[in-house]
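Anyone opening a protein record will find just a pair of labelled lines. The record below illustrates this layout.
***
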Amino acid sequence: MKIVTTEEIRQLEQQCLKIGLTTSALMENAGRAVAEEVGRILGNGGGHGILILIGPGNNGGDGLVAGRHLHDWGDRVSLYLCGPRPADDPNLKLVLERGLACIDASQDENQHKLDELLSSTEAVIDALFGTGQSRPLGSPYSQVLGRVTKAKEERPELRVIALDLPSGLNADSGAVDPACLYADNTVTLGFVKMGLFSPPGAERAGQIAIADIGIPAHLARSVATELISRQWVQQLLPRRPLGAHKGSFGRVLVVAGSVNYIGAAYLACSGAMRVGAGLVTLATPTSLQPVLASKLTEVTYLPLPEAEPGIISAGAARRVLSELENYDVLMLGCGLGQSESAKSFIGAVLFGLGSSSPPLVLDADALNTLAQTLDWWHRLTVDAILTPHPGEMSRLAGLSADKIQKDRVGIARKSALKWHKTIVLKGAYTVVAAPDGSCRLSPTANPGLASAGTGDVLAGAISGLLAQGLTLFDAATLGVYLHAEAGNMVKASLGDAGMVASDLLPVLPLVIKKLKES
């Protein structure tokens, strides 16, 4: 499912014109598709009171077409014209011929008529501005949207539906005008817009639906950013043949844990096992092994020498490197800590790898060690998936976390290209970027996942999937999706406050089972 920028939208529209698909045809398709989705949102059968805010451009034209169809299907539609329409506007002519209530904002002194409509309507459709709007919203648009916001505060049941995207939301960056509405639903046209999955705009979009407006799918083949879809994930799930044995599903060596972060090792290993890895071995400081063995009964162990109790020794790197030929994936970093011996150990492993080393999944302290190594990507040449949160990405990229959050897709993509590594930039709408410029976004934002240890589960899940033969980009993508869906399932039963990382572990197999059955 493609995610497009404003420039890509323009290019698609130009390509449509070249094949004879006119702007007016796209507008008719868009308006009807929006009307159909509004019917699903409000409940099919007509009779709904609907107010549509009409802007001066194509977004307003889409709103006029949607209003005509909703009227024809039995809804009570009122139009509030907030900007001048062309004198020969055929869509305006069609709604006027039907006798729809049509109020010109310039003739509505103090917006009293708007207030009357808002007090009696069931839903408001924002069709003021679409992807072309980049300037701040001026008069009368900001005042009109302000009235809608006030009406929504007074009547929470009032349904606010944005056409394509809430007016004032930047389609590329997700930046919002102060007047931008908090929509309950956004019916976006043709393809998802990047800004709908970028903060703070993502918080204004509500539930997103995609309206098919007739743009041929092949025209968007060159678009490099995709939204991870359920259908795609179902096709990617590793097969589980009846004659399989544990070696069929890969072997993961997890190097994790220290005296202060024992749980990280448990969560990472469990994440790998719960997505179906055949064998997981935990390499951890010797004194921690008995503690972890009481919880991790299914893994095997590689006890490592210690610099002090519970802290890995730098010399343990030789032991790890000597074992790598027996494994399909090396996962490194969760809970190792940032002691001098741990950092020396991590560096010795990472920069001591040979050309035949298995692919890596690097998290937490492995990332922090890389960030302290000048031009590390020139030295770490093996295939690797990096799973930073914004703070870790800030240290790796040498940018502020705030700057990263404002351009998550762009920075993840540039970093993957520069470092030639697969990047999983965690957070709301996690970004997965590949070295070839391809990028995928998670459709999920779940505050319940913002707690200690959930990243360890994710890194483990990605490692377990990578061991089963998926490419790095696909393993990272599938791991992100399964992890997010597990979070959604836990949220549905427990809520998003008090969810802990270990809640995800028994749910991961259920997510996979549900995907296979559907």
The longest helix spans residues 472-494. The radius of gyration is 26 Å. The chain has a mean pLDDT of 95. The CA atoms of residues 377 and 434 lie 15 Å apart.
